[in-house]
Specification:
By secondary structure, the chain is of the alpha+beta class. The chain is built from nine helices and four strands. A four-stranded mixed β-sheet has the order 2-1-3-4, with helices on both faces.
């Protein structure tokens, strides 16, 4: 039996499922998946039967006699970082790690205008749609600044926000997908980072699996 089961929603739309799935894949742990059509009544009922919130994602750690259930994307990522401290899921440098945690929490709790106006739709292309909705330009500018500042301050060792791939990259991966779909104007640093993430092997594996769901 695999070490973990991750319960996720449809890959085409479930941005919160994408985040911990990418991190779980990065650990190298064995896992299987339960994919729910989370926008349907049946999918919601299945999710409610599996976890306490009735929402996706949900991680089940099967390595213990009584399986451990962890829900909420950021909580799952933190749990995996504890389980696999040698995988570099957070940066090793204290300042970089503090920044990575801060921007991950900011994504977790913020950017509501962008979320509402620019829904994740993995394979669609709607350039310009929703960009004039209230608050969206400000959210895009803030995310652009995050990409630029992290790459400038901490990204010299590689192409990701903190050089190597971390939880912070997984937290912003669905936004990268949105930027491809809605095509806002980005700074050079941000555009380069978006290209990096779109070519990332984990991101492409998610896309390939999403195509098989269609």
């Amino acid at each position: 039996m695999p070490d973990f089961t991750i319960v996720i929603g449809s890959r085409q739309w479930s941005s919160w499922s994408m985040r911990p799935w990418l991190v779980l894949r990065q650990t190298g742990a064995s896992f299987d998946e339960v994919v729910l059509q989370h926008r349907t009544a049946a999918g919601k009922a299945e999710a409610a039967a599996l976890g306490p919130t009735g929402l996706v994602p949900l991680l089940i750690d099967r390595r213990t006699q009584v399986p451990i259930k962890i829900w909420d994307s950021l909580a799952i990522c933190e749990y995996l970082a504890e389980c696999y401290p040698d995988r570099g899921l957070w940066p090793s440098d204290r300042m970089a790690r503090a920044t990575a945690r801060s921007i991950s929490a900011e994504m977790h709790s913020g950017f509501r205008p962008l979320r509402m106006a620019l829904a994740m739709d993995l394979f669609e292309h709607f350039p310009g749609a929703g960009l004039d909705e209230p608050g969206v330009a400000e959210d895009i500018a803030r995310i652009d600044a995050i990409f630029r500042d992290c790459r400038t301050a901490f990204g010299l060792g590689g192409p990701y926000l903190f050089g190597h791939r971390t939880i912070a990259d997984a937290m912003y991966a669905p936004v990268v997908s949105r930027f491809r779909t809605y095509a806002p104007e980005l700074s050079e640093h941000a555009a380069e980072y978006v290209a990096t993430m779109l070519a990332d092997e984990g991101f492409k594996a998610w896309e390939d699996a999403a195509r098989r769901e269609l």
